[in-house]
């Protein structure tokens, strides 16, 4: 264990080149620098040891070459600088009155082993540790709050509503569907593989689910599941899916635009042809950014934590080990299965990186958890500590 004040090596994942489509593995590189584990004298900075880092679909936008006419809600990364995202960390030293040594926090950090966070206003102290810490990069973090705000505040759900969720097996979609089921809604989701469809039906309790890749006509697929139309659409995909949904919305339907992952890397985005439906059907369609709703986080925790503890909501994570594994999500062979379906990736540090179909080894607060790898040909300990491990999905 590194000691505050000493000089240590610090592995980082940095952006080497901007992409023009989906990011590629070659656009990123792992480098090692030296860092002194000490905050500047008189500074309000916080020095942390990163434990979990998350790889979210919106990061694609930050890795694209800047274009003046490209719409984006985030600034592009600087070449040669570490990737910035959400994570879980342990405070090693603090000059900020809100944090002290030993605190567990979640929020904005960099993809590296150790981070000196000069503006810790983006960090939140973790008060509830009876759930896996990795949950604060997922169900209890940004994705969870996104699902909560988007569904309950933007969609204004009512009991019995007919709800459709695209990219429904992703970090946000799986929660939206479960929130809807708790309100006795009829819920259908789309996903990109048979395994994910099975997950929606058998793990998350969706009433229906289909593999959009196997549907020749999305409009007809939606009519099959929603013969009376859709009241609520939680939009994660955009493009042809959105166009088909508009044809199937009911009068006064509500659409929460959370993401459009299919459009992020496109130089020429797909056009939407059925916008007249918004007028004719008097549809309320609203985009939202979770950053504008951070003030809802405590209320969100008060709502969701009891549901987790009572087993009324379940959650699936994918975990990979080592900061070098941060390059794996961007390999061409994984993009379709991961980013395009809004799959949730965790990068776990010690480095246990929570990625596709891996359970990782991590020592947190003196507790060692080890998990079984179920996907690639990499050797990991086949020991599991049930209290800190969640289900994995074989693909």
From TrEMBL:
<dbReference type="InterPro" id="IPR036291">
    <property type="entry name" value="NAD(P)-bd_dom_sf"/>
</dbReference>
<dbReference type="Pfam" id="PF16884">
    <property type="entry name" value="ADH_N_2"/>
</dbReference>
<dbReference type="InterPro" id="IPR045010">
    <property type="entry name" value="MDR_fam"/>
</dbReference>
<keyword id="KW-0560">Oxidoreductase</keyword>
<protein>
    <recommendedName>
        <fullName>Enoyl reductase (ER) domain-containing protein</fullName>
    </recommendedName>
</protein>
<dbReference type="InterPro" id="IPR041694">
    <property type="entry name" value="ADH_N_2"/>
</dbReference>
<dbReference type="GO" id="GO:0032440">
    <property type="term" value="F:2-alkenal reductase [NAD(P)H] activity"/>
</dbReference>
<dbReference type="InterPro" id="IPR013149">
    <property type="entry name" value="ADH-like_C"/>
</dbReference>
<dbReference type="InterPro" id="IPR011032">
    <property type="entry name" value="GroES-like_sf"/>
</dbReference>
<dbReference type="Pfam" id="PF00107">
    <property type="entry name" value="ADH_zinc_N"/>
</dbReference>
<feature type="domain" description="Oxidoreductase N-terminal">
    <location>
        <begin position="11"/>
        <end position="126"/>
    </location>
</feature>
<feature type="domain" description="Alcohol dehydrogenase-like C-terminal">
    <location>
        <begin position="171"/>
        <end position="292"/>
    </location>
</feature>
